[in-house]
Design a protein that fits this description.
Mean pLDDT: 79
Strand order of the largest sheet: 1-2-5
CATH architecture of the largest domain: 3-Layer(aba) Sandwich
Number of strands: 9
Number of domains: 2
Largest sheet: 3 strands, antiparallel
CATH superfamily of the largest domain: GIY-YIG endonuclease
Oligomer: single chain
Low-confidence stretches: 4-33
Distance between the termini: 87 Å
Order of helices and strands: HEEHEEHEHEHHEEEHHHH
Helix content: 40-55%
Strand content: 15-25%
Radius of gyration: 24 Å
Shape: elongated
C-alpha cells in the first residue's frame, strides 16, 4: 500500500472541495450534467416567464456569455438541468452568477443580445469561434452617399466595420432594423427619381437629390452608437416615430 503523506491528504482535500464548489458530475456517455449551487438555485427560482437576455458571469464577475430567450426561466434553467458536451459544458462549468434583462418582445431580445455581445465581447460568444472566417460583419461604406451592408471580410478602405456577428441571420436582422430606423442609401445612386426605399422611409434620397453630408454624418453617428451598445437612444427614436405616426 503506497505511503500517504500529509501533503497528499491536503491535496486530496483541496481537489474534493474544488469539485464540490462546482458541484457537477461527469457521465462520459451522456456528456456533462451540472447542478447549480444553492445561490444559483435561488436566483433560478426568481426567473420570470418572460422574454429577455441573460448574462453569464464567472467567479470574478466577468461576463463570459450573453444569450437571449423567449422564456428566461426555461432557457436559463436548462443550462443546469440538462446534459451538455463540448463548449456548452465548459461554459456551464465556469458560471458562478448571472444577470438578466426583461424585454417586451422576442424581437427586442434579439436586438439587445447583439448589442450586448458587441459591447461586452464575452469569451464564449466571440473567442471560441474557430477563427473569424465566414462570420459576417456590418459595414458602413466610405462613400459620398454611404450604405450599410453585410460583408465577410475586413478591408482597409476607410469604411466602418462592426462584428463579427454570430451568423448571417443576426447581421441581416440588424441591418434591416437599422435601415428602417437610421436610413442611409439603399438605391444604386442617382437615377433622377425617388426609389422604392425612399418612399418606404429607408433611403435618404440620393436617387434623385443631393443629400447633405451633415445628414449622413448624423445618421452614421446614431448607427455607430447603436452598434456599440447604446440601445436607449434607438428606443427613444422609435418611440418618437411612433408618436408622430399616431397623430
Amino acid at each position: 500500500m503506497p505511503h500517504t503523506t500529509i501533503l497528499d491528504k491536503k491535496a486530496h482535500f483541496v481537489e474534493q472541495n474544488i469539485y464540490s464548489s462546482y458541484n457537477f458530475r461527469v457521465n462520459i456517455l451522456k456528456g456533462v450534467s451540472f447542478v447549480a449551487s444553492e445561490y444559483l438555485e435561488h436566483k433560478l427560482s426568481l426567473l420570470p416567464d418572460l422574454p429577455g437576455c441573460y448574462l453569464m458571469k464567472d467567479i470574478n464577475g466577468k461576463i463570459i456569455y450573453v444569450g437571449k430567450a423567449k422564456n428566461l426561466k426555461n432557457r436559463v434553467r436548462s443550462y443546469f438541468k440538462s446534459s451538455h458536451e463540448g463548449k456548452t459544458a465548459r461554459l456551464v462549468s465556469e458560471i458562478a452568477d448571472f444577470e438578466y434583462i426583461i424585454v417586451s418582445s422576442d424581437k427586442e431580445a434579439f436586438l439587445l443580445e447583439i448589442t450586448l455581445i458587441q459591447k461586452h465581447r464575452p469569451y464564449f460568444n466571440i473567442k471560441l469561434k474557430q477563427g473569424n472566417n465566414g462570420y459576417p460583419y456590418i459595414k458602413i461604406t466610405n462613400e459620398r452617399d454611404p450604405q450599410i451592408k453585410i460583408v465577410n471580410s475586413l478591408l482597409k478602405d476607410g469604411g466602418y466595420y462592426f462584428g463579427p456577428y454570430p451568423n448571417v441571420y443576426a447581421a441581416e436582422e440588424t441591418v434591416n432594423f437599422l435601415q428602417k430606423v437610421y436610413p442611409l442609401r439603399r438605391c444604386n445612386g442617382f437615377q433622377n427619381r425617388p426609389c422604392l426605399y425612399y418612399h418606404m422611409g429607408q433611403c435618404l434620397g440620393a436617387c434623385f437629390k443631393v443629400v447633405p453630408e451633415e445628414e449622413y454624418a448624423r445618421q452614421i453617428k446614431r448607427i455607430k452608437s447603436f452598434l456599440n451598445g447604446n440601445v436607449g437612444a434607438c428606443e427613444a427614436t422609435i418611440d418618437s416615430e411612433n408618436a408622430k405616426s399616431s397623430c
